[in-house]
């Protein structure tokens, strides 16, 4: 375990915000995580002020953090679990601090498929289970089978099934009622030994045409390269321009709202999603029915409001992707929050729809 006092988090958040914490602690094993859980508890059984931090790619700091910041050791640690019998699938058990894109690269090289569309998403494996990261028609929940963690209130090592995590669009119980209750140590993903490409989302098929690749000739490595090329074309490199990737979540609306938008904005973009609605309000186990709902691209609305490429002082909206807020250098977290509120107000005024940040604001 490594401890650093009065530590600057400048290089631990991709927005490049210079805020400090009282103590920065890196845990390197399950035993370290158990020790930390015990240490965090006060005499009354509660926990002291702390922040669990991955790669900092989904974080906006607005002030110094007066407490302990906990992070998993940054190392590539992947265990391949194949089982005794031949199978169509394989399990990858990954250390929480392993960079997620390194796992995607490794999986493609080894012939384990399903992660290709998630290529180049920043962050670590532990965060993938919290955020339910997703891109181009694939989400982490489609791949995760279980999470291993230390329960901070009891110091116990627990295993949590993916079906217990309440996964939804950019959501999980780790962000809601389980927030700050577990220190994740490992995430296990199930991948396929057969390549079944997901090509319907975004402009993947357009890229296939541009690269003159027939669908039958497509390989997982080709698809990974296409996804990387698409992402690099529209997202800034955090080492050159501070950002946290997509800042806002895409709102999901019902058919009535969509029809109203179509009348006012015939060019509205939308994607159908299947939502499970419970008849048993508040119950986790009630009866469910399915209702068609529609995802409206927040970037499209922000662009229509004239924000794309607009700069306000040291912050602004990226010129190639309206979902991305950027730090041009020396900005504070409060500068970014002010820009966020201005964009939210304009979107609501024009479209009557609230948009919310995907980024964790602290």
From TrEMBL:
Belongs to the MurB family. The keyword Transport does not apply. This is UDP-N-acetylenolpyruvoylglucosamine reductase. The keyword Translocase does not apply. Its EC number is 1.3.1.98. GO terms for cellular component: cytosol. It comes from Hallella bergensis DSM 17361. One of its GO terms (molecular function) is UDP-N-acetylmuramate dehydrogenase activity. GO terms for biological process: cell division; cell wall organization; peptidoglycan biosynthetic process; regulation of cell shape.
